[in-house]
Amino acid sequence: MLKKRLKKCVDWSKINKKDYLNAMVLSAVNSLRLKSLLKNALTDEIDSREMFMKGIDYSYYYEEEN
Question: How far is the C-alpha of 2 from the C-alpha of 28, rounded, in Å?
């Protein structure tokens, strides 16, 4: 949706793991912090293979224990 409508994607390297996980917990009650984190990490590098691979790497990083 971001890529298609806004011509943007998330640069996950700009989002701190602890901040992201805390924002995810809070998002059940209030999504403003999560929206802010994502908005501040948007990039127009939608066709970058490096950005795509970085997203995959960070998804595993966010899942790791400590």
Answer: 21
The whole-number mean pLDDT for each consecutive block of 10 residues of the chain, a chain of 66 residues, reads 89 94 95 96 94 92 82
User: What pLDDT was estimated at residue 66?
Assistant: 64
Find out whether 42 and 9 touch, Cβ atoms under 8 Å: yes
Strand partners, 10: 42
Q: What is the structure's pLDDT at 33? A: 96
Which is nearest to 6 in space by CA: 59, 42, 48, 54? 42
Q: Which residue has the tokens 């602890």?
A: 18
Contact 12, 55 (CB under 8 A): yes
CB 55 within 8 A of CB 9: yes
Domain borders along the chain are: 2-63
